[in-house]
Design a protein that fits this description.
By secondary structure, this protein is α+β, with helices and mostly antiparallel strands. The chain contains 20 helices and 21 strands. Helix 13 packs across helix 18. The longest helix is centred in the first third of the chain and has 44 residues. Its main location: membrane.
Length: 597
């Protein structure tokens, strides 16, 4: 009995041991299978996660940033340059871990130096406490950066960046343009040549060990340095033109104005200014319309500045010769029920007299004496329906209809500069073409390595004839445009601005001219938009600006005078007129030119 009980107890003990063994074994097998499945999942199904975690701990990239290239004028003067600055940024997670927001005096000091509200600043930091990067202020001055560094706020750091600086300020703002906060060009040359000026930063990727030592260099990308850009602009002439234009816009209470100066032999733009302008170093509170380069974007009816082209067209076709006389009596005519007239009956006029007196009747008869297609082709050949070739953003091609049907009245108005709209830059290219003997070249805002061949669109002999006529215009009609010591030719334009349904009450006064006529070098176009005073004719408001800009430019470029102080020039009626006399800036004795509406 006792033996039986003992054997039964031993059997139960063996059974219990076996059961426990199998349970432990099963648990071990399950754990092993779980680990095996997990390892297989990590290494086969989702290995990238481990690699990513490892790379975060050991892989580093060292960037080698490059500053934006400089923009300089043709003489090497800097127009745009990048300067080193610091950017303030914060690590919200580190700030929270160090309880740095309790440093109220330090945060108040930080907000004060940055010109920010301290409550708004701290709310931005605490809004997402797990975030690792927040901009506090972009591109602060070195003095501010040193002050912020001394505050020693945990989680607030500085990083090196560069900021664009424009030494010429508002003088060259419309040509040079601006960049945004990330140094990307958004206006002017900065935008057109953004890729060239930006360059590409280099970088080195390497792996480090736990002690921060480099153990493997994975790749090296060399930096592509940015290129500096040399413009055709002569900053001396640019500053002179801007000063004179700004003074004229203020004096005549005009809405705006533009001046373009070109080298007639190369097509290079030596100056292009607009007023009002803006400060590219501080765009705060700058109206959007001020960023517009009006010399290429805004178009207007050029008025009488187109009359030399009408004369040239008649000469080119053979409908008139240098000695042709046009009878404009009785001083008016009707075309299709519409009236064309001069202010008075001027009788018989030579081609020179037509330009001197700015006769609408004379140019109308010349325009109607040639085939319509020939007249229109000449206007198109001058580039009045295409951009000038500068490549600047926003340039307008102008407005000139290519429709097949034109009435005689429409052709008449076209002959004196109505029925088309062009920019000051397009007008400057036309006068450059006229000055260089009839070769049309694209305008360039970048300094040219070689002179473009261009396209001959006018006869050299006839352009010479017209230049002589334009000299008579200045000497006999527009004394305000004279430049002492130089032979100057040019033409005024006064137009009423078009509005919806017709014409309004605002004027545009223009003067386009060339000098020195013995060997043309420069063309200058001055446009004054919507003068608000009693003076509005081109000869009164634009010609004096032309005279001072042309005189200064000729002297700055050291171009020799080509006329004596007093030169006798015969007019077409056998009289003698005095040329190249000194004109004071305030001289307003020039004969008023009649507006051509």
């Amino acid at each position: 009995m006792i033996d039986s009980v003992k054997r039964k107890s031993e059997q139960n003990k063996v059974t219990a041991i076996a059961w426990r063994f199998y349970v432990v074994l099963a648990v071990i097998v399950l754990i092993y299978l779980g680990l095996l499945a997990r390892a297989a999942y990590i290494q086969v199904v989702e290995p990238d996660m481990l690699k990513k975690q490892g790379d975060l701990r050991s892989l580093r990239t060292l960037a080698n940033t490059v500053q934006r290239g400089s923009i300089i004028d043709r003489n090497g003067d800097q127009l745009a340059v990048s300067v080193p600055v610091e950017t303030v940024w914060a690590d919200p997670k580190m700030i929270m871990q160090n309880n740095a927001l309790t440093m109220t005096e330090h945060w108040q000091a930080l907000a004060d130096v940055l010109g920010q509200d301290v409550d708004r600043l701290t709310r931005r930091i605490s809004k997402n406490p797990k975030k690792r990067f927040v901009y506090v202020e972009r591109k602060v001055s070195p003095a501010m950066a040193n002050y912020i560094k001394e505050l020693k706020i945990p989680g607030v750091f500085l990083r090196k960046e560069s900021k664009r600086f424009y030494p010429a300020g508002e003088i060259s703002a419309h040509v040079v343009g601006v960049t945004d906060v990330d140094d990307k060009g958004i206006e002017g040359i900065e935008r057109v040549y953004d890729e060239l000026l930006t360059g590409v930063g280099g970088q080195k990727r390497f792996r480090k060990d736990a002690k921060g030592r480099k153990i493997e260099i994975l790749s090296v990308e060399e930096a592509r340095p940015p290129q500096d850009l040399t413009l055709s602009i002569d900053q001396r002439i640019q500053a002179l033109a801007y000063k004179e234009l700004k003074g004229a816009v203020a004096a005549f209470k005009a809405r705006s104005g533009s001046v373009v100066v070109t080298n007639v032999n190369t097509g290079e733009i030596l100056a292009m200014v607009n007023n009002p302008s803006y400060n590219p170093n501080n765009l705060a509170n700058t109206a959007t319309h001020r960023l517009r380069n009006r010399a290429i974007t805004d178009v207007f009816e050029p008025g009488s500045t187109m009359k030399p082209l009408t004369v040239l067209t008649a000469l080119e076709f053979g409908a008139a010769g240098p000695d042709t006389v046009i009878d404009t009596s009785p001083g008016w005519m009707r075309l299709g029920g519409r009236r064309v007239s001069d202010p008075r009956n001027r009788g018989k006029l030579s081609l020179t007299d037509i330009l001197v007196t700015s006769s609408n009747m004379g140019t109308t008869k010349l325009a109607l004496s040639v085939p319509k297609e020939f007249l229109l082709d000449k206007f198109f050949e001058m580039g009045f329906a295409e951009d000038t070739g500068t490549g600047l953003i926003g340039e307008s091609p102008g407005m000139l209809s290519d429709r097949s049907r034109w009435s005689k009245f429409e052709l008449a108005t076209l002959s004196w500069g109505h029925g088309l709209a062009i920019s000051p830059a397009q007008l400057a290219r036309f006068y450059s073409t006229l000055a260089n003997g009839g070769i049309k070249r694209p305008l360039s805002i970048v300094k040219a390595d070689k002179i473009p061949e261009g396209e001959r669109v006018l006869s050299k002999s006839y352009t010479g004839e017209v230049l002589d006529m334009l000299e008579h215009v200045v000497n006999e009609k527009v004394s305000n445009a004279k430049v002492d010591g130089y032979r100057v030719g040019g033409k005024t334009g006064t137009t009423i601005k078009a509005v919806a349904g017709g014409y309004g009450n605002d004027y545009v006064g223009t003067f386009a001219g060339i000098a020195p006529l013995s060997r043309p070098e420069l063309a200058v176009v001055v446009m004054i938009n919507e003068p608000g005073g009693d003076l509005y004719h081109g000869g009164e408001i634009a010609a004096p600006v032309f005279s001072r800009v042309m005189k200064g430019a000729l002297q700055l470029l050291n171009i020799a005078p080509d006329a004596s102080r007093s030169v006798a020039l015969p007019n077409n009626k056998g009289q003698q007129v005095q040329g190249a006399a000194i004109q004071a800036a305030a001289d307003s004795t020039g004969v008023k030119e009649k507006a051509n509406a």
